[in-house]
Amino acid sequence: MIRRLFLLALLLVCAFGNADGTTVRAVANPELVPGLIEVGAPFKIEIYMNNDDGEHVGYSMPFAFYSPDASISNVVHVNVGAYGPDSSIELLNGWESLWVFLNEWTTFSWDGVLPDTINHSVAALNGWLPGSGDLVRIKFNYQIDEEGSFCIDSVSIPNTSPPGKLDWLFDFPTTFSGPYCWEVGELPTDPEIGVDLDSLIFESVQGESAPPAQVMHISNTGVGTLNWNASWNSSWLGVSPSHGTAPSIVQIYVNPTGLGVGVHEDTITISDPNATNNPVRIPVRYTITEPPPEILLSQTFFSFNAIADSTNPPDQFLTIYNDGGGSLSWTATNSESWLTLTPTSGGDGDQITLSVDITGLAYNTYFDTVVITDDNASNSPQLAVVRLEVASSLPILATDTSYIVIPVDTDYPFPADRYFTIYNDGAGTMNYYLQTSSIRIASLTPDSGSVPQTVTIAFDSIACVPGSVLFDTVYIYSLEALNSPQIVILQYNCSAAPPRIIISKDSVFAQIYECSQGTGSVIRPSFTVYNDGSETFSYNLTWNSTWLLPSPVSAEEPKTIYLDFDYYGMVPGFYYDTVTVWAYNAINNPQSIPIILQIKETDLPALITVNKSQFSFVAQENRTDKDYWIRINNASPGCMEWDIEEDISWIEFGIDTTSDQRYPWFVRIMPNAYGITMGHYYDTANVVSATASNSPFPITFDITVWKLRGDVNYNGVINILDVTYLMRYIYAGGPAPMPVDYVGDVNCDGFINVLDITLLFRYIYIDQSPLCGNPY
Fold it and tell me: Rounded distance, CA 269 to CA 280, Å?
């Protein structure tokens, strides 16, 4: 019968001899297979000793072994240190010891007489020089050809009485926590498959990226060589590498593409026809769950209008949809008592009625918020703002301005006309009439009537001296309004040279191409605002169209104003607008300038241009790297339709839609190393256009895929070679970790230093726990 035999333990650390600095360490080392004892075969115990006390000493190492089937064959003294002992090894029998016989522990007391049946021994040496080293091998024979066990322990040796030849050996009793035992049996002759995982479980949400890969260690728990092969059935499951020689580190990954919600199962079979336990099967379960619900509101702003002490405004409606997966179960709440929600809970597609009650509400503007929640929704809560404007039930007198500045040129004291508008900010109808006692106002036209109405103020000659400031008041009355009268104040600023708006051009004509202006320099049209007076002014610009973009829209004069054009979607033709320059203290406020824009048709062949045509990426197996961007444009002015032709599995492409796909286009590229193993990959994508003279335009890509942090020499495994490589990099100016330096940052603290070396040692020789950033 072939059995697996395990080394249970043996690490003897004993201090003994005539000086405290003498230390002993005993380690079991069977001659054929380390850690195993074969039935009937000799095996040895190696005892390592060192004198680090600095004095000439003697020492002893008393021990006992427990097995009726074992006996000492010989004692060999080898590998003497630089100074060497000056006497030889002796094997001494007859000292009291602890004994195991018939699986029971028995303690014998010391009476000066040694029983013949007790088997015990002491290795001894004296005259040991300082700083020397020694190695003693005690060889045993296992006498009977049957399975059993062998144990060894240290013992405490009393002093002899009367003192004898070896009395010095026993001044320092030697003890340690034992005993230490091994099983004895027939040694295995074939490999055996060892795996550290009984099963694998993956989980992800439908529509999201694949879960991280998991790591499995394959080892040979037998003898010989284990050449393993992995097999499985499903296309969604992957093993990398799929074959190898133990020991091996294997990554298992899953791909959700094409899989539906539910539990998907498969089995990874690890096989080697020569293994005693062939094959070993590891079940794999991949659970894909529905994405959580996502709240989508039919609108996020509601506006109600009502007149105080009148009827309530009509109801409005909010519909709640599920824009995700699963089942949506929402709850609606609000704060203000004037707003009622019916119902306050529901599911996908259900509707809330928003009802407003203005009872007791004064003339004012009110706000509330409808809060829609579902603890299971990915975007809970969602908000809808409700605005309620309660207007007066009576007319309210209002004007568009209550203060007008009139610059006065003392050399020509006839200001230009000014204007203001009267309107009703309440309910019902309203009439007005105007009054003023100023001799400076020639007329108010019309001075009475119904609202809304724009009133023109005309002025007589205004007598004033430079630097003086005069004021007038226009009173606005209404017999129907609650807040009558209202006033408009006029301020006259007298100056010998008041500010005057001067525009450098009488019009601007611009020509641009449809779609794009190409990559050449584009001259933006402009005009300049000057001041023809002695006092300064600041201007503001107004215009009507959405395609005109002047800048800056406000500033202190003098200032050049540049014109840009939002021409996206505009067809060839002529477009017109007017820019008005306002300066409240300018004597000729406001002034205007016409703008004419011509959109020209494409008349040149397109020419594909990209900001970068070669990309090199680095990514870890079954991970993605950061996003990169390609900027694609038409170098010629005009339109260009294009597409990217590619079949690259390890790159994801996407167009940035935040700019409405305007020229230039920004194409996102993300390296994706899911499903590909360590190595270098190369491929090409082509930008193609039916109208471009340089189509197709190639863009080349390459990616270096790495497997594990700590594999700094880029060979796919982590071992002592990586430690020495990292030490040379840190301390001797050696090459950097490959393929990127952060592969050497195994604790992910952003630095590569001695802490990373320490962690690598621990990983290799102690716990094999995955390093930071590596798959579990």
Answer: 6
129 touches 86 (CB < 8 A): yes
Three-state SS at 742: helix
Contact 342/353 with Cβ under 8 angstroms?
yes
Strand ranges for 186-232 from DSSP E: 193-195, 200-205, 214-220, 227-231
DSSP letter string, 427-480: SS--EEEEE---SSEEEEESSEEESSEEEEEEE------TT-EEEEEEEEE-SS
User: How many other C-beta atoms are found inside a 10 Å radius of the C-beta of residue 676?
Assistant: 17
Q: What is the mean pLDDT of residues 450-464?
A: 94
- Among 30-34, 39-43, 201-205, 436-440, the range scoring the smallest mean pLDDT is 30-34
The closest alpha carbon to 372, from 303, 315, 323, 305, belongs to 323
| Residue 617 bridge partners (DSSP) | 703
Instruction: Indicate the length of the chain as a whole number.
Output: 776
Longest alpha-carbon distance in the chain: 145
- Rounded distance between C-alpha atoms, residue 15 and residue 174, angstroms: 7
Distance CA 415, CA 498 (A): 11
- HEC letters along 150-172: EEEEECCCCCCCCCCCCHHHHCC
Tokens representing residue 531 in the block: 């001041």
Cα separation of 251 and 212, whole Å? 10
52: tokens are 């680090």
| CA 692 – CA 636 distance, rounded (Å) | 9
What's the Cα-to-Cα distance from 406 to each of 417, 458, 501, rounded to whole Å?
Answer: 9, 11, 14
DSSP 430: -
The pLDDT of residue 240:
84
**Residue 39 in 3-state DSSP?**
coil
